[in-house]
From TrEMBL:
PROSITE patterns: PROKAR_LIPOPROTEIN
UniProt name for this protein: Lipocalin-like domain-containing protein
Organism: Syntrophobacter fumaroxidans (strain DSM 10017 / MPOB)
Key words, A-Z: Signal
Span of the signal peptide: 1-25
Length: 154
């Protein structure tokens, strides 16, 4: 009888562990361990970034799908920090459709003062003391206002 209770307790603990792991995987995003150490790529700097862009930022971008006319919520995050005389930008984006593809890692963005851009049309910028995300893909979607990622301050 004691063995059965021990077995059930271990089984329950295993289910709790799996649920927590799955919740973290779905939560995704940038963690402190992702940005620990030195970046593998650095940003191109045309003009030093607005200090408001430093640290971690996140939003849920409403991506328009022309084929269906629907909007898909896509979590987007970035972390910008200075490393000596260079800047590193860690990027995260999760696509819900198509099996949930995730884009993450250090990326070579271009920094130009109040704006950070990529060759793919991704844009982070400051306006009125706030930080925004937009993605220029031939359609004009409303920029998403970003909020700080707790624990990833400048």
């Amino acid at each position: 009888m004691k063995m059965k209770k021990l077995y059930l307790a271990c089984l329950a603990a295993g289910f709790v562990f799996m649920a927590c792991t799955l919740a973290r995987a779905q939560d995704g995003g940038i963690s402190a361990s992702d940005v620990a150490g030195v970046p593998s790529e650095f940003a191109k700097v045309e003009k030093e970034p607005d200090p408001a862009l430093l640290g971690g930022w996140k939003c849920v971008y409403q991506r328009f799908r022309p084929k269906t006319g629907d909007y898909d919520p896509e979590p987007v995050e970035f972390y910008l920090a200075k490393y000596g005389d260079k800047f590193g930008l860690y990027f995260y984006r999760s696509k819900p459709e198509g099996g949930g593809k995730v884009y993450r890692g250090w990326r070579e963005f271009t920094i130009n003062g109040k704006e950070i851009t990529s060759e793919t049309g991704i844009r982070f910028f400051t306006e009125g003391g706030k930080v925004f995300f937009s993605w220029e893909r031939g359609q004009k979607e409303k920029p998403a206002e970003m909020t700080r990622i707790p624990g990833l301050d400048k």
